[in-house]
Amino acid sequence: MKILILNCGSSSVKYSLYDMTEGERALVSGLVERIGLDDPRLIHTLADGQEITQEKAMLRDHRQAIELVLATLTHPDHGILDSTEEIEAVGHRVVHGGERFARSVRIDAEVMQALYDHISLAPLHNPPNITGIEAVAAILPDVPQVGVFDTAFHQTMPAYAYIYALPYEYYEKYRVRRYGFHGTSHRFVAQEAARFLGQPLEKLRLITCHLGNGASVTAVKGGQSVDTSMGFTPLEGLEMGTRCGDLDPAIVFFLMEKEGLDTAGINELLNTKSGVLGVSGYTSDMREIEAAAYSDIPRRIANTTHPHHRRSKLALDIYNYRLKKYIGAYAAAMGGVDAIVFTGGIGEHSEVTPDDACTDMKFMGIELGPAIDLGDGWYELSQPASRVRVLVIPTDEELMIARDTFELVKEAR
Fold first, then answer.
1. Is 413 part of a structural domain of the chain?
2. Which residues are designated catalytic?
3. 305, 296 in Cβ contact below 8 A?
């Protein structure tokens, strides 16, 4: 079964194509960017790494972008399909499913109405997700579609973990609560960790750390999310690339008064000008931050000649300290932990963060050693005697979406 995976942003469409009948094989991936803007383009990447770029004069909307994707997939020179009829299902990443969706679902009229009902919870993300689904329905009306929700995995959290200490009526009226995000990634690496450890996921206590420009930590007990660091929105939790993460809510009112900010202004400040960028003063790229903090990372030699050394080091220390606090808190919440998993761009590639977040944690049973390369981007950072395993596992949200789509479509046949 060939399955097309779509992730529609406000002005972009990421796509990939999987053949699920031949060992979950990724056939192609790509990105259409600057939809509705000047100089849109498509970057089409074949399985062998070859890239094909197409510049377009105009792509008015997501429907035109998806039509371009389908034309590229069936192109006589660099396409990999003879016809769009080979596409048997389409899986969509959908950011917010609210409390309605605790698992991936086949998309029908009832599901679409629920997505519209949840726009107020994700006003920046759900509308383009909906637009992508409607575009596919118009272009490929007979192809089943599946929605895979970032929030769904976290619907197993108990009420004491997701209810905020506000007047309860705001939960009843507006569904103000912790939702959590990155659920597809946390679920994928939890399953992969269980497979690697050779134990049933239902018997494990895992802490999964998805660390990218957006970052979150999840406590996974018995295969279920029991707590997660992001909250009502992705703003809560860890320090992130441009998001502040946890802070005293009174700071919001203080800064609004002192800086003359309205709600749009303070929202922009906390979401796009804070975090690593705000503390460092010059970048949100953790690779640049680490280079400015250390001239020799394995030996932690300070790069004091770098003009941004002090604040880069501070941003890095805040990042790793907050991560360590969440790891400790979630170990306590679950009554222990069997493995800690790092994933995402920073989690998979940083030479600093996983080590710093797990250093001086022998009291928890964590003993670090030289990284063991397990192949395909996998690493083990813990010593053989460590009671808690520390792993780096590359995430693959597209594959997780493809798996869910395959299973749901297969069930309906």
1. no
2. 150
3. no
